[in-house]
Amino acid sequence: MTDSSSSTPTAERPGGESKGGESLLTVLVALGANALIAVAKSVVAVITGSASMVAEAAHSWADAGNEIFLLLAERKSGRPRDKSHPLGYGREAYVWSMFAAFGLFTAGSVVSIWHGITSLQAGEAETDYLLAYAVLGVAFVLEGISWLQAMRQTRAEAKARGVSALRYVWGTPNPTLRAVVAEDTAALIGIVIAGLGILLHELTGNPVWDAVGSILVGVLLGVVAVFLIDRNRDFLTGQTVSPDMRHRALRALLDHPEIERVTYLHLEWVGPERVFLVAAVDLAGDAPEHDVATVLDRLGDELRTHPLVEEAVLTLATPDRPALVLD
């Protein structure tokens, strides 16, 4: 039933802490890199007056602030379920990641586009090109380190699920990993855009190129922010698991010796690497009602020990409902 290496519904609950630790490390690396880069870009933006550097500084400060939201997402979503939250607090990860995406849009995209447009209208003085290139080069290295850490985690988890890294980033229920990968990728592209804007300014003497670089960086951040907002919205409103994962879950249930058939199966993400499972099953044999209730309760307990299952609800299938079959 798993989306990783385990294939039985009674697997013990390992790995949750290690996956959380890996995501925490990824966020901390990104936070450290973005904080250093934001300070350096801000200083150079003040010295040079470059529109592209202002956009890049806004971008880095937005990213650094977003990592704080992502740290909150990791911390708050990891709380165990209680009476007030029977499905746990996993969806808090999507709430705080949504705040981070809105922050990227407002503090990064809007500021960059607005500053680029005002620079087009007001013009721009000559800048210290060498200093700007040096800071962009250092920023590229630091962002690259953060990006490599995020991609290392992405490739490892994608390989465990047998999918490509790109497909995993799109479909992963882990919003912090998706945000760091998307933001770091945008940061590397943004540095190249800013560098080209400054280079064209230097070669042509026309400051319009620098202003255009700022606008393009803002547009890039806007696209990334909308992507992150849309994916978090999907998980907040009840994202179901992939067909492949549902197929494995159905196979695991049908392979259980006490389950004869399954007529209904619902699997919904309720947090990073946590699902809510509801199934209607027909038990083998013709046991009395009391024994059937006991078996269903025990099977539910077994399912809850699985590393992906936050809660499991099993009901009896009605005779008139067709059985689900494996493709």
Describe the structure.
By secondary structure, the chain is mostly helical. The chain has two domains: 16-236, Up-down Bundle (Alpha-lytic protease prodomain-like); 243-316, Alpha-Beta Plaits, CATH 3.30.70.1350. 67% of the residues lie in helices and 9% in strands. It is built from nine helices and three strands, in the order ααααααααββαβ. It has helices at 16-48, 51-77, 92-122, 129-161, 165-171, 175-204, 208-236, 243-254, 289-304, and strands at residues 259-271, 274-283, 309-316. Strands 1-2-3 form a three-stranded mixed sheet. α2 packs antiparallel against α6. Mean pLDDT is 85; it is low at 2-18.
Keywords:
single chain; 327 residues; mainly alpha; Alpha-lytic protease prodomain-like; three-stranded mixed β-sheet; 9 helices; elongated; disordered N terminus
**Unreliable stretches:** 2-18
> How many H/I helical runs?
9
Order of strands across the widest beta sheet? 1-2-3
- CATH architectural grouping of the largest domain: Up-down Bundle
Mean pLDDT: 85
According to DSSP, the number of beta strands is: 3
Specify the helix fraction band.
55-70%
Largest sheet: 3 strands, mixed
SSE sequence, one letter per element: HHHHHHHHEEHE
Radius of gyration: 25 Å
Q: Would you tell me which CATH topology of the largest domain applies?
A: Alpha-lytic protease prodomain-like
* Cα shape: elongated
Name of the CATH homologous superfamily of the largest domain: Cation efflux protein transmembrane domain
| Fraction of residues in β-strands | 5-15%
Termini separation comes to: 15 Å
- What would you call the structural class? mainly alpha
Q: What is the CATH class of the largest domain?
A: Mainly Alpha
Count up the domains. 2
